[in-house]
Amino acid sequence: NSKNLARDLNADGFIARFGGVFEHSPWIAEAALAADPGLLHADVGRLHAAMASVLRAAGPERQLVVLRAHPDLAGKLALAGELTADSSAEQAGAGLDRCTAEEFARFQELNDHYQSKFGFPFIIAVRGLDRHDILRAFEKRVGNTPEQEFQTALGQVERIALLRLYQITGQPQHDLG
Ligand code: GUN
């Protein structure tokens, strides 16, 4: 049954496979597995629900650490080639490595403005979006209140995790909005 994605994995294998689903935050996969060893035999929907509840239960301080673990989009780490493989592939998939000098400068301005207003980087699940869509969403979200934006960012982190789970497992995607 190809939906039992993690079967034949032990706990170490599970973390090796799914630890990066939340950027630089393998503790989320670890805590989810500790709470429910049955995740070794779960499909994407169940894995994602379990990891998302760990993040939701973690409280605002640890949630903020997770948000801050994300690199800027079209930022200096990307230029320096220092992203995780997932982030690099996602940014390239949205064409962020092909920004004009003007677009790149606009990203830097928005990144700085957003970071100083909210205290974490702008995070958006970029799959299916191009750099114009992303800049438009960026311009809009920078006007949100901190409370709104914290919740929006957490929702995007969960969506990025879901997309990564589908990517890793090859399970067909059917429940994406
Ligand atoms: N959206 C998808 N991946 C990433 C990432 O690594 N960083 C940010 N800021 N947004 C993303």
From TrEMBL:
Protein name, UniProt field: Uncharacterized protein
Oxo-4-hydroxy-4-carboxy-5-ureidoimidazoline decarboxylase domain sequence ranges: 9-165
Species in which this protein is naturally found: Skermanella aerolata
Family assignment from sequence similarity: Belongs to the peptidase M20 family.
Subunit record text: Homodimer.
